[in-house]
Amino acid sequence: MGLKPYFGLRGNALLRAALFLVVCPTFTCYGYNMGVTGGLLTLDAFNSQFPRIDTIHTHGAQNQENSQMQGTVIALYTVGGIFGALSCIFLGDLWGRRKVIFITNFVSIIGAILMTASFDFAQFIVARLVLGLGIGGYVATVPVWQSEISPAHKRGSNVVTDGIFVGVGVTLALWIDLGFYFVKGNSVSWRFPLAFQIVMPVITMIFITMLPESPRWLIKNGQVEEGRKVLAALLDLDEHSDDVNENILSIETSLAYCPGSWTDKTIKRNRRTEAMPRTQFFFYSMEGPRQVTHQHFHPELWSSYVGPNLLLGKCMAIFY
């Protein structure tokens, strides 16, 4: 007797499994990466390994030059994330949500390994880009997959949990940075915090293969019967029940209204639908500098306020 699909889970239990086995590690890792680097910038071992971005032990013109270089290198993570997210606009429809989530998590693991094993500044720069590429890809794809497997009446409450997990990740990163601050004169103080994040994408990669594909993507690609089975499992109903049939009809209707061609989508998109994402991206852009400053450089900023007491700065960053 073979194993039942999705661990034998159905309905709400299956949705909870998706939430805690894929969504949770995904956004915890995203938040972790937002917080972990700032703490490393204040470590002596890290600055001795990468003196080009040392702003703790330098002064004057050298400090200004290093500060600019530091900001550029840290921001490369975001640059990689932009390209990773944009690429998934096409790859998500081409390969499916689960495959894209698996691949982008694998890319982020490569980036994390490259960062952890960095001895050369150039390698660290490349690692930041690769890490951002992977994380940008799965951060853009997981909410789509999550919303497409969630019933309409639970979609908002399910997706809003993403922000909670981001906060957990940031807090976890700051506590780990604080703990390894006491490891003096050893590269483990910064290599372990960078390596620790690998655990989360590994969890995601393992379980995303065991959870359902988006029924919308399946139906869009002609796999209606497979989509029917997925919907039945998600709704905990018989495959040929009225609710399952209504969901399939609803998906097919929406796909007919929004065909695959970008030209067709543009023609049929009304002004309100067009204005919403533009407004959203506008406010994201306005929020971006604050997020980069507060998360990536949080411990360093507090350390600059409280003077030479780096430990106090790290503690203030955690409880801010």
From TrEMBL:
<feature type="transmembrane region" description="Helical">
    <location>
        <begin position="100"/>
        <end position="119"/>
    </location>
</feature>
<feature type="transmembrane region" description="Helical">
    <location>
        <begin position="159"/>
        <end position="182"/>
    </location>
</feature>
<dbReference type="InterPro" id="IPR036259">
    <property type="entry name" value="MFS_trans_sf"/>
</dbReference>
<keyword id="KW-0812">Transmembrane</keyword>
<keyword id="KW-0472">Membrane</keyword>
<feature type="transmembrane region" description="Helical">
    <location>
        <begin position="74"/>
        <end position="93"/>
    </location>
</feature>
<dbReference type="GO" id="GO:0016020">
    <property type="term" value="C:membrane"/>
</dbReference>
<keyword id="KW-1133">Transmembrane helix</keyword>
<dbReference type="InterPro" id="IPR050360">
    <property type="entry name" value="MFS_Sugar_Transporters"/>
</dbReference>
<dbReference type="GO" id="GO:0005351">
    <property type="term" value="F:carbohydrate:proton symporter activity"/>
</dbReference>
<dbReference type="InterPro" id="IPR020846">
    <property type="entry name" value="MFS_dom"/>
</dbReference>
<dbReference type="Pfam" id="PF00083">
    <property type="entry name" value="Sugar_tr"/>
</dbReference>
<dbReference type="InterPro" id="IPR005828">
    <property type="entry name" value="MFS_sugar_transport-like"/>
</dbReference>
<feature type="transmembrane region" description="Helical">
    <location>
        <begin position="12"/>
        <end position="33"/>
    </location>
</feature>
<feature type="domain" description="Major facilitator superfamily (MFS) profile">
    <location>
        <begin position="19"/>
        <end position="320"/>
    </location>
</feature>
<comment type="similarity">
    <text>Belongs to the major facilitator superfamily. Sugar transporter (TC 2.A.1.1) family.</text>
</comment>
<protein>
    <recommendedName>
        <fullName>Major facilitator superfamily (MFS) profile domain-containing protein</fullName>
    </recommendedName>
</protein>
<feature type="transmembrane region" description="Helical">
    <location>
        <begin position="125"/>
        <end position="147"/>
    </location>
</feature>
<feature type="transmembrane region" description="Helical">
    <location>
        <begin position="194"/>
        <end position="211"/>
    </location>
</feature>
